[in-house]
Specification:
The chain has nine helices and twelve strands. It is globular and about 65 Å long. The protein has a single domain, classed as 3-Layer(aba) Sandwich (Rossmann fold). By secondary structure, it is an alpha/beta fold. The protein has a six-stranded mixed sheet with strand order 6-7-8-3-9-10, with helices on both faces. A four-stranded antiparallel sheet has the order 2-1-4-5, covered by helices on one side. A two-stranded antiparallel ribbon has the order 11-12.
Amino acid sequence: MTAIQTRQVGLNVGHFHLHDISLTIPTGKMTTIVGPNGSGKSTLLKIITQLLQADQGEVLIYNQSAKQYKPIDLAKTMSMLPQSKGILPDLTVRELISFGRSPHKRLFGRLTQEDEHIIDWAMDVTGTKRHEDRMFQTMSGGEQQKARIAMALAQKTDIILLDEPTTYLDIAHQLDVMEMLQHINQKYNITIVMVLHDLQQAGAYCDYMIAMKQGKVVATGKPKELITSFFLKDVYHIEAKIKFEDDYPIIIPIKHPNHGRN
């Protein structure tokens, strides 16, 4: 079964336009959405999660229109982790992760024993258990991102969408997060969809790629097949050579010695 499908989705906001977005996202795989800044990647995630309403077209979640889901049922099916931009109030790591249980409990209701077990599971999976009593703001960027991912896991959905989960992290923490997400995907069969800027990480860790440019989908398929010199020139307007080392794509920009000289 297809996890997510969009049919001719369009949106017009000022000078920005999404054009006829029709795509499918496979169940149980790691899918990445790539493309230059301003191509509509984050906007597409917001439309899929109904945080933003498209002007035309429809989104299907497990072959059912997203508009037919009640908000609470959609939150039990799909979780969304936006970019880390805002400052959170003073919370311990465990308190933050417990917010992931919100769709499953009554308003002002207390956490049940099952909720506590799921929070423990999310912390174990992400390696954040040892930090549960620490204040979230005292942790490093990589540790904070793992805690935020644990919060999304605690929502206990079959689909998780992440908007640039490795942005602002150093290379060690980027790879740590990517390996953790790959482990979660493979062990628990959770469908993961993420916006990424690093094409090498996209090629090394993801099963499926959607490339966007100027509000349009310009390519879909397996990353290792899509990432070519032609692809880089067509989508990013850069000239580069591609080679693979142990299935890891290495992108080597081609320098032009006389570029910029009179």
